[in-house]
Specification:
The complex is a heterodimer of chains A (137) and B (395).
Chain A lengths: L14 E10 L3 E3 L2 E9 L4 E7 L2 H4 L4 E13 L2 E5 L5 E7 L13 E6 L2 E10 L12
Parallel strand pairs in A: 4-6
Antiparallel strand pairs in A: 1-3, 1-5, 2-3, 3-4, 5-6, 5-7, 8-9
Chain B lengths: L15 H13 L15 H17 L4 H11 L5 H14 L5 H16 L5 H10 L8 H16 L1 H7 L1 H18 L6 H20 L1 H4 L5 H8 L4 H12 L13 H4 L9 H11 L3 H16 L8 H13 L5 H17 L5 H17 L7 H4 L6 H11 L5
Helix pairs in contact in B: 1-2, 2-3, 2-4, 4-6, 6-9, 7-10, 8-9, 9-10, 9-12, 15-17, 16-17, 16-18, 17-18
Classes of the chains: A mainly beta (137), B mainly alpha (395).
Chain lengths: 137, 395
């Protein structure tokens, strides 16, 4: 199980983690599939999580979700965490979980590692908090 | 045959308690049917796991329940303490999600535990009473209420001898439930349930009033909600006119009940603090704070009640030091409102808040305003501004 601050963009379904849903965006249609962006976080970091199909209705704000074999990658220039076709998202609890809103792993600019172009490394913080779901205060 | 305890949504992971119970059940399955060994020597862990396996068996295999319970009685060496402890955990963590057949088995085994006077059966009953919900007229909830009131009437003598305090707790629950169940008259199920709840409550009030006194003054409030039920009307009347009839030591007058505080009720300020921390939108939070302080702004001890201004001060004072941000944000809000709510009529507001503060001290809600004014972890500027407000003028 990884904490959110440890996740790095990659083209593989290798992320196992757990987080709480802080905020859900509007459900939209992408092609024929439902899609919904959410702000999620654990005690180390926040990230944008993309729900797909029935997940959009199954998960609510306050749900604690466990992700298995999921992927953190770019989708139309947005860096998102999602279960993906080979991964699994499951509700394991609700309401009580410590979290932070900074850093947001989706709001970091990542560049290929000069010594190994297959690995991404953080280059700069674009925004300390989510720009899609700005904090209240 | 079902092998699940709970019903689960599509994207819902299985509960770890259920997984662990099933694992022990599957692992120990060969030992759960005869022939049983004549002597059993188990380590503590093996003993606990066998308890878990038997619980899973009892809850999911109604057709084998006699076998499992006989097995259980034979292996017990701790007065059923582990067994009831696991059951309490299931009730607290899973009850709402349990499938109906499992709930039926759960109540059955609960009666069995009362019957053998298992250690901890009272906690099990209290846990189940907590699941009898107010304002819930669903079939499942009414069923549980009926099962529980039946249980309390059936085991009346035994509960009275062994764990009389659990009767007091049941009385509190059933009086509250009756306020719901008396509102619906057309439903046959609710009518029958209501009659049994009345029977239980009247029995305890009439026969064992000393136990009822443990509830404190809330008892009177609950009974007043039910004054339209003839039995309770009669009891209230006797409280006033015929208190000796209750044969409770030291009970001579209703005022003695008034003076007894009802324990363990969450105070208003704590609930408001929780609501405040749950606000997601800043304007909602601001509205809540204004509502909390509104009576402060125009307070007049001759016409206003100290109860209306009490939650805000208690929330500020009791949040020190663990929730300092609550104290800070409230105090800051109050000072900003005093300055800005109605600039033209600021003098009225200063007077109101100043009177509110002095009334809170005078009535003993807080010992002194020093808890705020001399509190080092509150910013100095806020403390100075508050100090000026206390004497009724703000610069």
């Amino acid at each position: 199980m990884q904490s959110l601050e440890e996740i790095v963009p990659a083209a593989s379904n290798n992320i196992n983690t757990k987080f709480i849903v802080l905020e859900k965006g509007r459900i939209a249609l992408e092609g024929k599939q439902k899609m919904c962006l959410a702000l999620v976080a654990d005690e180390t970091a926040a990230v944008h999580f993309q729900m797909w199909g029935d997940e959009c209705d199954a998960f609510e704000t306050g749900d604690i979700i466990r992700l298995e074999n999921s992927i953190f990658s770019y989708n139309r220039n947005n860096l998102l965490l999602r279960a993906g076709k080979r991964g699994k998202a499951e509700k394991v609890g609700e309401f009580t979980m410590a979290f932070v809103e900074t850093p947001n792993m989706s709001e970091i600019r990542w560049v290929p590692d000069p010594s190994n172009s297959k690995i991404y490394v953080p280059e700069a913080v674009i925004s300390p908090c989510s720009r899609v779901f700005p904090p209240m205060h | 045959m079902t092998t699940n305890l709970t019903a689960r949504g599509t994207y819902e992971a299985e509960n770890p308690i259920e997984i662990s119970l099933r694992e022990d059940f599957e692992f120990l399955k060969p030992q759960l049917s005869p022939p049983f060994p004549l002597t059993v020597l188990l380590t503590q862990e093996e003993y606990f796991n066998l308890n878990k396996a038997l619980i899973f068996g009892i809850l999911t295999q109604p057709h084998l329940v006699k076998l499992h319970i006989k097995h259980l009685h034979a292996i017990i060496t701790d007065g059923y303490k582990s067994f009831t402890c696991i059951l309490v955990n299931i009730v607290n963590e899973l009850y709402a999600k349990l499938i109906d057949s499992v709930k039926i088995q759960l109540i059955w085994v609960t009666k069995e535990m009362v019957d053998v006077l298992a250690i901890g059966f009272d906690e099990l009953l209290v846990a189940l009473l907590r699941q009898c919900l107010n304002g819930d007229f669903s079939e499942g909830n009414l069923w549980l209420c009926l099962e529980m009131v039946t249980l309390f009437l059936t085991f009346w003598d035994c509960l009275l001898d062994e764990e009389p305090l659990v009767l007091t707790k049941a009385l509190y629950v059933f009086l509250r439930l009756l306020a719901d169940h008396c509102r619906v008259s057309s439903n046959v199920v609710i009518y029958a349930l209501k009659r049994m709840e009345v029977e239980f409550c009247v029995l305890l009030l009439r026969e064992r009033f000393s136990l009822c006194l443990n509830i404190g003054r809330d008892l009177i409030r609950l009974l007043q909600d039910l004054v339209h039920v003839p039995e309770f009307k009669g009891i209230l009347k006797d409280f006033l006119l015929n208190p000796k009839q209750f044969r409770a030591d030291g009970f001579g007058d209703i005022s003695q009940v008034y003076r007894t505080k009802t324990p363990n009720i969450v105070p208003r300020w704590a609930v408001i603090g929780w609501l405040l921390k749950s606000c997601k939108k800043s304007y909602v939070e601001a509205n809540l704070k204004l509502a909390l302080f509104y009576d402060w702004l125009f307070f007049d001890e001759n016409t206003d009640n100290v109860m209306n201004i009490e939650p805000a001060i208690l929330l500020m004072v009791n949040s020190i030091p663990k929730y300092m941000e609550v104290t800070h944000t409230l105090l800051e809000f109050l000072l900003i409102v005093v300055d800005n709510y109605d600039i033209e009529r600021k003098d009225i507001i200063i007077k109101g808040v100043s009177r509110a503060l002095s009334t809170l001290v005078k009535k003993g809600v807080i010992g002194s305003l020093d808890v705020l004014i001399r509190c080092d972890i509150i910013s100095k500027i806020l403390r100075e501004m508050l100090g000026k407000l206390v004497i009724g003028h703000v610069g």
